[in-house]
Amino acid sequence: MKDKKDNLSLRGVVLLVILLLLIGGLVAGSDDCTGKIGFTCVDNTQFCAIIKALAPASVQPALEDCPTSLIICDGEEIELYWKADATVTENVHVTGPEGEDYNFPIAEGHATVKPHVSGNWKVEFTGAQCNFTKTVSVRVVRGEESYVLLARGNIDTGFFCDINPKSVSNKLIVKKIRSARCTGTTEYWENWSCKKTQWDGSNPLFFNITKVDGSANCTPLAGRWRFDPTGLGGTFTYSEKETCFQATITCGSCAQTPVPPPLPTPGG
């Protein structure tokens, strides 16, 4: 009889231990975010930037078309926009590549910054339960720099490259351009015609492109680019779905070489 009671007592202890272990596991499993069973941190944060001249005055319109990679001239202003879940975000911490450091106690907002070096701008959304991090890349152009235009399409419809003016300074122009082989492609074609317009299709510019640097008529980098191969003959067809062009970009106006005055006519 005593052995039976001892067995019952031992069984009760074992069941109690199992129950405690189960409770402990549930608590530990929910510790990563809030300490509440079943809660998960859902990342619905947003962080982006727009060239200051085209930046909306409020967050929501900006987020509808907001780049995460920009190219600007030295000293130009850009507008940073962020949005997070206010129920889990207590602080927004923004840092820049030169050690810039800003704290904002609001889960949704925007701020003006003036980058001087290329690098990432980072935001950290922090709260008692959840932490999230996002970045925006900013390239700052000084002098003349190299830039690759990647266009996609085919020889029947043309190859297109759209560069959003919200992401590229309107001061950036293309001085020179030439055809180049895209990484990983098997075919390469040298000669192309180009049509470049503003974002709305206005102010078309036309020029030809070869394998050597040629003028791009100082066209702004931002806008819509169309490329078509020229001189295709015989049985050759360009079957690649993308093509590349090596451009030289710079900030400011493109000074053309002045044409010298005509020499005086002898005896004139």
Structure description:
- This protein is mainly beta and 268 residues long.
- It is built from two helices and 16 strands.
- The strands form three sheets. Strands 13-12-15-10-9-16-11-14 form an eight-stranded antiparallel sheet, with no helix packed on it. A five-stranded mixed sheet has the order 2-8-7-4-5, with no helix packed on it. A three-stranded antiparallel sheet has the order 1-3-6.
- A hairpin with a 5-residue loop joins strand 4 and strand 5.
- The longest helix has 28 residues.
- The C terminus is likely disordered.
What does this entry show, briefly?
It contains two helices and 16 strands. The protein has 268 residues and is mainly beta.
Structure characteristics:
268 residues, mainly beta, 41% strand
* Strand proportion: 35-45%
- The total of beta strands comes to 16
Specify the number of helices.
Answer: 2
Which of globular, elongated, flat, extended, rod-shaped describes the shape? elongated
Mean of residue pLDDT values? 85
* Major sheet strand order: 13-12-15-10-9-16-11-14
**Main sheet, how many strands, which sense, barrel?**
8 strands, antiparallel
Topology order in helix (H) and strand (E) letters: HEHEEEEEEEEEEEEEEE
